Amino acid sequence: MKTIGLIGGMSWESSAEYYRLLNELVRDRLGGLHSARCVLYSVDFAEIERLQVQGEWVRAGDVLAAAAKGVEAAGADLVLICTNTMHKVADQVQAAISVPLLHLGDATAEAVHRAGVTRVGLLGTAFTMEQDFCRERLSAHGLDVLVPDEAGRGLVHRVIYEELCLGVVREESRAAYQEVIRRLVDRGAQGVILGCTEIELLIGQEHSPVPVFPTTRLHAEAAVDAAFGTSG
């Protein structure tokens, strides 16, 4: 089993999900007391969030690149950025290390294709929904990507930062997300990508009329496949 390097803390709530999923997936595969070989570098999310708001993406990338070097030095054979939004600096991070960076967008797109879906709604932070780095990565895989309208994007973003990143899960926010999903389906979405790791704390398949694609789980599954040399 290869060692998986995790760049987390964005937020730690979702990084805890990554850690749980990786260990459960390895246990399910090997049985007994087996668990994942992994190294976690958890950043201070307040620093990253400030750089996001200020548009200081290169400086934020420097922080993540340093973290990636740290997990590589600690023995990681592959690296995950445990957040959708910070895949904006994925190329900068990959350039800083000699081991592979497993891109969340690629793992997600492969799962969407396996489900036979070609048009997907994308939920995430405003950065993920409004900037090109995620949508273009998915489009490069042949997917047609829809995002909510301005009001929907604002609601989804606010709930992520003001509630989910703090571990707060509210039924009224779940209902509001379901309405955003319904409107995406009305526009032709055949599935919905939960394109922020924290969204999986709020929305599951039972909350959507179309298939949902939980990026945290899909990323973790791809990482375990890679760790065992069974990807692809």
Automatic annotation (TrEMBL):
Q: Is Isomerase among this UniProt entry's keywords?
A: yes
PROSITE patterns, from UniProt?
Answer: ASP_GLU_RACEMASE_1
Give the SUPFAM superfamilies listed for this entry. Answer: Aspartate/glutamate racemase
Give start-end ranges for the coiled-coil region(s): none
Entry's Gene3D superfamilies?
3.40.50.1860
Tell me which InterPro entries the record gives. Asp/Glu/hydantoin_racemase, Asp/Glu_race, Asp/Glu_racemase_AS_1, Asp_race
Sorted UniProt keywords: Isomerase
By its UniProt entry, which Pfam families does this protein fall under?
Answer: Asp_Glu_race (PF01177)
Member of which family? Belongs to the aspartate/glutamate racemases family.
The name this protein carries in UniProt is Aspartate/glutamate racemase
Origin species, per record, is: Streptomyces venezuelae
